[in-house]
Amino acid sequence: MRILVTSIKGGVGKSSIASCLAAYLDSLYVTNDLISGNNDDENQIEPNRKRIPLALSRVRDIVYDFGAMYSQLDSKIAHAADLCDVFIIPTLTDVRSLKGAIQTYELLKAKETPIVIIINNFTSEKKFNAAKEYLLKQLGQVPILAIRKTTLFERFAENGKTWLSNIHNEHGEWQLSKSKKAHDKVYDTIVRIGKS
């Protein structure tokens, strides 16, 4: 499956979601952001490239983590969008992030590919419900999923894919194991939507 994780707004969890999703699906992770260099599974597309390199465009199981677009789709993002089975737009619950999610949705909807919005990194159920209601009012019946605030993303970035896959075996990691199960349900839903 080919998945594009993108948003016009920075700091909403694109890279965290994309890298964990790629690990969960055992897919190639590709970004246009500067990469940390501590993960062998990361692949960066140079900022000046206009299209996805041919070798990467042929990969069947891939998660693109692309940001840095403004009032129109960057040519590289548009090319990735043409290749993908599903789009993911992460957002936080604040107004700027929600408006960024709406702008991103408006840019992508012409592609007629399923779009999923993930409200990310929230602690208040009340704020989540208000954000979801706002998005549904603005966009109609778009799938909206939830990923609560957790240290899972940071720990994955620090410890990698092997740690993530073995989290249920780690002593004292029961809370993160619970978070991982919640994430897995979100990722399973994305796969189901992408295949429909």
Helical region count? 7
Low-pLDDT runs: none
Order of helices and strands: EHEEHEHEHEHEHH
> How much helix, percentage-wise, in residues?
40-55%
Give the termini separation: 12 Å
Q: Approximately what portion of the residues adopt beta-strand conformation?
A: 15-25%
Tell me what you see in this structure.
The model has no long low-confidence stretch (mean pLDDT 87). By secondary structure, the chain is α/β, with parallel strands linked by helices. It is built from 7 helices and 7 strands. The relative contact order is 0.18. Helix 1 runs parallel beside helix 6 and helix 4 packs parallel to helix 5. The termini are close together.
Attribute tags:
196 residues, alpha/beta, 7 strands
In short:
Helix content is 46%, strand content 18%. It has helices spanning 14-25, 54-57, 75-83, 95-108, 125-139, 152-165, 174-195; strands at 2-6, 28-31, 42-44, 62-66, 86-91, 115-122, 144-148.
Lay out the secondary structure.
Blueprint (H helix, E strand, L loop, with lengths): L1 E5 L7 H12 L2 E4 L10 E3 L9 H4 L4 E5 L8 H9 L2 E6 L3 H14 L6 E8 L2 H15 L4 E5 L3 H14 L8 H22 L1
Parallel strand pairs: 1-4, 1-5, 2-3, 2-4, 5-6, 6-7
